[in-house]
Amino acid sequence: MAQIIQWFPGHMAKAFRLMRENLKYVDIVFELVDARIPVSSRNPELDEVLGNKPRLLVMTKTDLADPERTKAWTKYFVDQGLEVVALDTRGHKTPQIMTKAARKVLADKWAALEEKGVKDKPIRALVAGIPNVGKSTLLNHLVTKNVAITGDRPGVTKKLQWLKTPTNLELLDTPGVLWPKFEDQRVGEHLAMTGAIKDQLINQDDIALATLKFMRTYNPAAIVARYHLADDAWETNTDVELLLLISQKLGFKDDYDRAAERMLLDLRRGKLGTYTVEMPEDHIGEVVDD
Ligand SMILES: Nc1nc2c(ncn2[C@@H]2O[C@H](COP(=O)(O)OP(=O)(O)OP(=O)(O)O)[C@@H](O)[C@H]2O)c(=O)[nH]1
To answer: Can you give the residue ranges of the CP-type G domain (predicted)?
Structure first.
């Protein structure tokens, strides 16, 4: 598959510059990643921008992801020394879960402040992540309906807008936008499989075939059940033949563009079951020098 999308270094540089400026006003960064693609939905350059700024890694969309793999990924990140939460960001416990985890990350710092007599200091946070990862959804679920947007903070010359929450978190109202890194072709495929890239920018047939390749080992039964295929369909057909078969089963005859589109919608909406495309041992996104 050809490179499916251009990477915009200019946009990225600008986004990072903005984030760097905003970092000094916050105590912690919530880095959002999609639980289905924990590698492809991260931008490794964020490490450099954050420096030693405290960070909470938030795996979103766990309702769509493979629960076992979410556990494995959580352990993997925790072993790397990160504090991690994995959640459906739309859940009613989101404010409590996020606040508890943020307090844990900042426990020592806040204890030191309390010793100096500073009590109940709000935690100020910046939400960051690639497009579609759930930044706005998280903000909406952290902030109550009666949102109080405060203007300038004392001592802060720059005009920043803060969103208040009932749990003593304060969030910068503009999330930090990160771009994925496309050096590895699989990264583009995985982003497209989860719907993180606009469909106009991808070749849906290619992504449908990448999906079939993945499902062949991951969950072949889900495809058989959803499209009423014969039990031995996987053994007797190549991925391309399967797509054509699915097209016929859907009543689309040989219009496999339409079948590809339908299959991707099914995948992203969870109609083919929960799924996590990546595992740490897959070495996705690792660029090997020749
Ligand atoms: N199933 C599920 N859907 C989610 C979750 N979080 C976000 N979504 C959905 O994912 C889509 C994208 O969410 P947004 O909050 O708009 O993502 P964003 O990161 O703000 O996206 P940009 O504005 O493009 O940067 C929306 O349709 C949300 O409803 C989640 O935990 N589970």
So the answer is: 12-180
